[in-house]
Write a structure and sequence with these properties.
It contains three helices and two strands. By secondary structure, the chain is mainly alpha-helical.
Length: 107
């Protein structure tokens, strides 16, 4: 599962880089590149599509990053966070923050 998420993360990152580089500069970036005409994608329609694509890819990137953190997360004890939480849900206990000992839930 981690390998699939990492491959997706790599593809989304490459897609983000490509889409961002295709966008036209608005100028004001220290005068470098400017916002002059003759851009590769010049037109409001193309700009809207690229902006929307960037937002979608960024949302997928952030969501995938969170999933990777959950799936591959490891506690200080060496236990996997995801597995520990599933085990706690199954047994109905939570760990005390200070001592790390299991405490039964009230529900």
């Amino acid at each position: 599962m981690t390998t699939v998420l990492l491959i997706i993360q790599l593809l989304v990152a490459l897609g983000l880089i490509g889409v961002i580089l295709l966008q036209r500069s608005e100028g004001g970036a220290l005068g470098i590149g400017g916002g002059g005409g003759g851009g590769m994608m010049s037109g409001r329609g193309a700009a809207n599509i690229l902006t929307r694509t960037t937002m979608i890819l960024a949302a997928v990137f952030i969501g995938n990053s969170i999933l990777l953190a959950i799936v591959t997360g490891v506690t200080a004890d060496g236990d996997r966070v995801f597995d520990t939480q599933i085990e706690n849900l199954a047994t109905g206990t939570v760990e005390d923050d200070e001592s790390g000992t299991p405490v039964p839930t009230d529900g």
